[in-house]
Structures are given as C-alpha cells and as structure tokens.
Design goal:
The structure holds 2 protein chains of 2 kinds. By secondary structure, chain A is of the alpha/beta class. Chain A contains 16 helices and 13 strands. Chain A has a 7-stranded mixed beta sheet, sandwiched between helices. A 4-stranded antiparallel beta sheet of chain A has the order 10-11-13-12, with helices on one face. In chain A, strands 8-9 form a two-stranded antiparallel sheet. In chain A, α6 (166-173) links the parallel β2 and β3. Helix content of chain B is 21%, strand content 32%. The chains are: A alpha/beta, B alpha+beta. The interface between A and B is medium-sized, with 9 and 15 residues.
C-alpha cells in the first residue's frame, strides 16, 4: 500500500508544518503553480506506521546476511557515521577559507595519504562523486595523457570479457572504441589474444583484479608488460579492492590509474543513489592530470590545490569537494582499522569466501572454477541442477529469501550459466556462514523432492514472484490519482 | 538440448542465417541464445539500408538478465527488419527460428554465408563452450 492510498482530505500532521510560510513573491508568476500539489493527506501516526512497516519489509545488512557478489555488502561500523556527523563537520561552509577548516582539510589530506599507501599509487584525488565518475575521471586522464604526448592515434580501450559492465560504458563515454579480450577456462585473461590485440591504437586496458569471476589474475605482470610495451596505460577497476586490501597493491602490479568504490571497501553508504565517492589514484606520469581540488600540506598548514597550480588537470568534477561527508566516513573507517586492520579486512574476506566455497562444494554444489582459490567471492553454477531437476539460479535465489537470506547475485557474470556469485565479506561470523550453507543444502533437497516449491518461491514475503518482464516493459513509478 | 534446424547456418556469437530464394538472408538469434538470455523485454533492430561489416554490432536484445549485442554474421546491407519485435519481443523466446527473426540482409557475398557453421558444427560448438 502506498502512502497516497492512506490519504483522507483534511488530515494533517501539524507537528511537521513549517512555522511560517516561505515568501515566494520574487518568483516570476508564470513559474508559480496554479493548483495545489497532490500530496497525501495523512496523520503523523499514519506516516510513522507506514514507513516503519516498510522498513520492516527490507532485507538489509542490519537485519540479514547479504552475500550479494560483486557488491561487498559488509557491515559499516556505526562510529563512521556518528563521527562524520559531528557538528563541526556538518556546519562547515564549503566556501569557508582553508585556515578556518584545518580539521576538515587534515582529514581529507590523511585520507589521500592512506589511499595512496594502501594502493601503491603516486597521488590520489578524492573528488569524484561516485565510482562511475571515478572511472570517467580515470579514462579521461588516460586520454589527456596521450593527447599531451601528441599521440592522437590511440583510439581503442581493451576490456576483458570478465570486466564490470561499467568499464566498456566508461570507455565509450570518453570517446574510445571498446575491444573485448576473452578469458581462458581458468578465469585468467587470454594472454595470446591480448598480445594480438595491442598496438599503436591501444590507449589502455581496463582490468578488474580480482575479476568478476572471483579469481585473481595470475599473469598480471605479463599483462602489464604487454600493454605498456605497446604504449598503452593500465586501468585498475577498484570494485574488488576489498579482497587485496593491504596485501597486494595495484601500483606494484604496474597499474597507472585506479578508482576506488569507497562504499565497497571503506564503509560508506551503499546503494540507493548514494551519495557516493570514487577517489582516483595515479602513477607518476598521470599526476598532472588529476581532477581538482586536492588537499596539500606544507608541513604547517593544509591548503587547497586547484587548477591554478595544475594547468594540465582534467578539471573539476563537482562543485567544491565531491561528497565531503562520505569521504569523512571513509577516513574514520581507515583510522579505526589502522595499518594492521587493513590487512585483516582482506584476510577475513578471503577466508570467509573460501570457507563458504568449500562447504558448499561438500554440500553438492558445482563451482565454476573448482581448481581456483576464491578471492573475496566465488561462483556456484546450477547448470546441472537446471538440467536434471529443472530448477534455476533464480529459483534458488527466491527460495533463499524464505530462509531469511538476501540472495547472492544471479546471472552475473554472464560468462557462467545459471550462476550465483557469492560474497560473504569479512564482517560475517562463522555461524552465519554455516546457517547459509544449511539453507542452501535444504533448498537443494527441496529441489530434488519437490521442485514446485522452488518455482513458486518466495512463499513467506509480502509479494510473491514478480513479473520481471512486465516490470521492465511497463515501468510505472508515478502515483496517479484515479 | 536446444534446437538447431539443419537448413540454417550459424555463428559462434549465436546468430542463425536462412538463405531465401531471392538471395537475401534472414537472421535471428538461436534457440540456445534465447534460452541463455531468458525472457526478452526489448529488441532494438537496425535500420533498413544500414550497412555492416562482419562482426559489427547491429541489433540489441535485452532480457531480464542482460542486454546483449547481436552481430552482423557477414558483411551485408539490411533490407528488412522485424517491426513486430517492438511490441512483441517475446517472439524471440517463443519462436526464435520463425516469427522471432530480427532482420533480412543482402550479404556482400553468398560464399560468406556458406562458410559459416552448419547445424551439427554449431551444436558441437555449444556443447564445447559449456565446459
């Protein structure tokens, strides 16, 4: 039921009414609306009950195990939120002069330094307002670099087929042609195909490592050499950084540019439109092109670094400093972890994934890459169950909801049929993982005994199986008064 | 096992081709491809008279799982497109080798079409692809 359907003419929530009506006398009359907007007319208690009930229907990391592969749905410590909301941060005006905001600038400077250290890059800019903008900034810097070299023939970006879908999209947005590189049957980039594809037209290669197949690219040295020898640059998609945090550094692997999805690795809000933060890190040769503003420190005071002293910058990506509040949360998280804690993130994330992978294999599930060690995530393929029992990955996903688990990612990556991409993250205890294995084992038994139970799942939620085709084709997000 | 009529030619990217009497060729995606993609929500067809090189992306099929390019199987010019798919993309699922056709093309060379895989070779390829 929508809030609009609770509406009765004349109902009010007086407590929420503004003290005085805002004056709008200076707005041009043609811009003023003629009729009142169709807002719901409800009491305060109705509003409270309506939204409380909605929130109770949520699957969230605060209420459920949420092993959504490729998304790193880990627990965000409350402290990150609380400390980033200190009055001094909240009330700071973005145009306040640097001497009046030294505390805030110090946090950002430290975050730049910590991200540099943990990724092995030469310099970091925090300003991109989300992962997608970080990717855009990264490829825009590759473009700016080649242009500054007077090299206009590099028109192609190489993207392995195990990459995130955003990579080809970003390359296209930046005006490049995308060339896909295949993956071999062990999940590594096909090196021979890469060698055949590079040339004077190659601007760069975009690589996610570990890849979306949940395995670490073992020949990264050879890949980096191949791309660099052809004059191209190496782009690191930081989506799966959680698996290697503090263990292997993209800078040491030879990457020239990296974006980081802070919501995946550094405890900032997830999904729902953000706000996000997608800092970028670069090697020495790309440093002049970093987006501004950056924060500098002269040993005494912190200051803004802008386009005035960075003439080759790709420019500003947003007003002010990106999503400052989100950056503060990441800073708090990094400080809480410390140097040792960073290592533990990767260790426990991969330990949990490998534990879960082994236990599911023992329970009778097929792994997409049985010979490979999992990184922070792994893939189960239900191809056999589909053939023999007529149940699909989607049926398993829907049935898991009945057991109180958010479903893993389904049907991604596209390379593996009937797949579940499972990422437990480092913040789950062993009991949770065991509970998930038990649920999966039960569902497998149900599939063998009564497949119909899976086909009709979920059984216990407010809505049953949704009509995805109709939802996609007849998208209707607006309340229409009858 | 998915279906693959013996009178058609096939590509590794899962398009099928049927040579008609007037030398034009009808193109669609295979039963295996539609099965992998799942329920279609949208099909974007090319424009009549558009020209493609072999391997160019020429159409898009979007399902509840993914949006995928359809590739021109040979160098060709488009002579007709299946307008019905705009309102009924599910035809690709229901009848991939018939009413779910995507476009009719005039190939630059009929020999290019003949050089593609036959049904047996395609089914063997599908089998080997699912390692």
């Amino acid at each position: 039921m929508l809030i609009f359907e609770h509406s009765k003419p004349g109902r009010r929530a007086q407590a929420q009414a503004p003290d005085t009506a805002a004056g709008v006398s200076d707005l041009p009359p043609e811009l003023l609306r003629d009729d009142t907007p169709p807002l719901p007319e409800v009491s305060e208690m109705q509003v409270v009950r309506h939204y409380t009930r909605l929130s109770q229907k949520n699957f969230s990391i605060d209420t459920h195990f949420y092993p959504l592969g490729s998304c790193t749905m880990k627990y965000n410590p409350r402290a990150c939120n609380t400390l980033a909301m200190l009055p001094g941060f909240l009330a700071r005006h973005p145009l306040a002069p640097a001497p009046a905001g030294q505390g805030f600038l110090a946090c950002l400077y430290e975050l730049q330094e910590m991200l540099k250290e943990v990724t092995g890059m030469q310099a970091v800019s925090l300003t991109p307002a989300a992962g997608a903008q970080g990717e855009f900034a990264g490829v825009a810097m590759i473009r700016a670099y080649h242009r500054a070299q007077g090299d206009s023939g590099r028109t192609e970006i190489l993207v392995p087929d195990a990459a995130h879908g955003t990579n080809p999209a970003t390359a296209t947005m930046c005006g490049y042609t995308v060339r896909e590189i295949p993956t071999d049957d062990q999940g590594d980039v096909d090196l021979e195909a890469l060698k055949a594809a590079v040339g004077p037209q190659t601007a760069g290669l975009m690589l996610t490592n570990p890849s979306t197949l949940g395995v670490f690219e073992r020949r990264i040295d050879a890949i980096a050499r191949t791309v660099h020898e052809a004059g191209g640059l190496l782009y690191y998609d930081g989506a799966n950084l959680n698996a290697i945090l503090g263990k292997v550094r993209p800078g040491d692997m030879g990457f020239d540019v990296i974006h980081m999805n802070l919501h995946k690795t550094f405890s900032t809000p997830h999904g729902g439109g953000g706000p996000g933060a997608g800092p970028v890190g670069v090697s020495e040769r790309l440093e002049p092109f970093l987006p501004v503003p950056l924060v500098g420190f002269d040993g005494d005071e912190y200051h803004w670094i802008t386009g005035k002293t960075r003439p080759q910058t790709i420019g500003r990506l947003s007003a002010f400093m990106g999503n400052a509040g989100v950056l503060l949360r990441a800073w708090v998280y990094a400080r809480l972890l410390g140097r040792e804690g960073m290592h533990r993130v990767a260790e426990y994330a991969t330990l949990n994934a490998n534990y879960l992978m082994k236990r599911l294999a023992e329970a009778g599930f097929d792994l997409a890459f049985p010979d490979r060690r999992a990184t922070h995530e792994f893939i189960v393929t239900l191809k056999r169950q589909q053939k023999e029992l007529g149940v699909t990955a989607m049926d398993f996903a829907k049935r898991l909801l009945d057991y109180g688990y958010h479903a893993p990612t389904t049907y991604f990556p596209l390379l593996v049929p009937e797949c579940l991409l499972i990422e437990p993250t480092e913040t789950e205890a062993r009991e949770e993982l065991d509970g998930f294995v038990e649920a999966m084992t039960n569902i497998l038994r149900e599939a063998e005994e009564n497949a119909e139970l899976l086909h009709e799942a979920p059984h216990s939620l407010p809505v049953r199986r949704l009509d995805e085709v109709r939802a996609a084709r007849e998208l209707d997000l607006r309340w229409n008064e009858k | 096992m998915s279906d693959a009529p013996s009178d058609l030619r096939y590509t590794k990217s899962h398009e099928w081709l049927r040579t008609d009497e007037d030398g034009t060729v009808t193109v669609g995606i295979t039963d295996h491809a539609q099965e992998q993609l799942g329920d279609m929500v949208y099909v974007e067809v090319p424009e009549v008279d558009q020209e493609f090189e072999a391997g160019d992306a020429c159409a898009v099929v979007e399902s509840v799982k993914a949006a995928s390019d359809v590739y021109a199987p040979v160098a060709c010019t488009v002579v007709e497109v299946n307008e019905e798919l705009a309102d009924a993309p599910e035809l690709v699922n229901q009848d991939p080798f018939g009413a779910g056709w995507i476009m009719r093309i005039r190939p630059a060379s009929a020999a290019d079409v003949e050089a593609l895989m036959d049904a047996d070779a395609y089914l063997a390829y599908v089998e080997s692809e699912q390692h």
